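Protein of interest.
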Amino acid sequence: MTKSAFERGQFNRIRLHVLPTQRFKTFSISLYMGTPLREETVTSNALIPFVLRRGTSSTPETIAFRERLDELYGAGFGFDVYKRGDSQIIQFRMDVINDRFVSSDQPLLASSLKFLGEVLTAPAEENGHFRDKYVKAEKDTLRKRLEAIINDKIRYAAERCLEEMFVNEPYRLHPLGQLADIDVITPRSLTESYRKLMSEAAFDLYVVGDTTLEEVKSLVAEAFKMESGTPSSYKMPAVAGKSGEVRTVIEEMDVSQGKLNMGLRINTSYGDEDYPAALMYNGILGGYPHSKLFLNVREKASLAYYAASRLDGHQGICTVQSGIEIDNFDKAKVIIEEQLASMRTGIYSDLEMNQTKAMIANHLRELQDSANEMIGFDFNAVLTGRERSANELLNQVQAVTAGQIAAIAQKTELDTIYFLRDRKEG
């Protein structure tokens, strides 16, 4: 099987993706709302799902709202806000048990989609806008989430490296927005932002479980009361090489351990033919415990408390993260750059090749054991226009040669070096 097993359809502005299967005892539902990352909307858009989770027009009080989930046999309900490429994505998730396994007097998939449809299209309001107390409380929640990133210096350094690397591009923005923009948001302005988001966003609804595309389409027609129109599509960023010299940014804070991060433009994205080789490149460089960064920077040279790399296939970048003694900046920088040079030689041990392929294969096989992981993997096709099944990607990875990995390494460019260190005296 090379293509996805999901069946595709459409209702109004919502693209439908249904995987009929009896493998799971639950229905897994995910609704994605996507919109371009913009400085003027990113914070208010991030706040919207926090407020939507507080209540609906029929159950405006949060306690009664949550009791509805209990009535659905303890259905799970949650959301995430993140970015893919230059898009800000809000994802609502629900998991509810299949009716066959309980003595329910209501069809649970229908009830769950009705619940989700109401959350999205009929929020709790007062005087024509979101409830004041909910907006005030959730502004505090969002503020704490953003402050938590500053307090977690590993996350903070990772975010700051991306900010500097994409200083003039939308990707510099954090998907949860900016602290400075929270205070000016009012219930009325947030309601206006919500209505604008609802009119412009790309909507994709996934359902995995013992159902059919036809049933889901019928249930969605009942549950989602939206303006008519055609689905919006995603525009993935052009994969661009770095401009100019490598930038080195040194930031001082009250820290005892240095954080050395590097941003690499690998000039390959998820939709490209050489994406499987990019997965291998990241795996050998720093994706796993047998990788070059882990073994040479952390183990042999004892220069880092941690050293790893992460691939972002939607943005066409790879980032290196390491925690070091502050005085070891120059040594650690040199040895990390030596690993990047080593990747360009095209000489990789059998252990590096075989173990990396095995680790990636294990991950791709594990996807099949989780409905939510399968949904997330398939959503890549929506974002990029490149449809490939997990099995297809697995086979492509197994066929990757050393020469193909070297080709990725040779077009990879070091763009930004970011170092978080202590405050210098004097």
About this structure: The mean pLDDT is 93. Residues 99 and 108 are 6 Å apart (CA to CA). The domain at 247-421 is CATH 3.30.830.10 (Cytochrome Bc1 Complex; Chain A, domain 1).
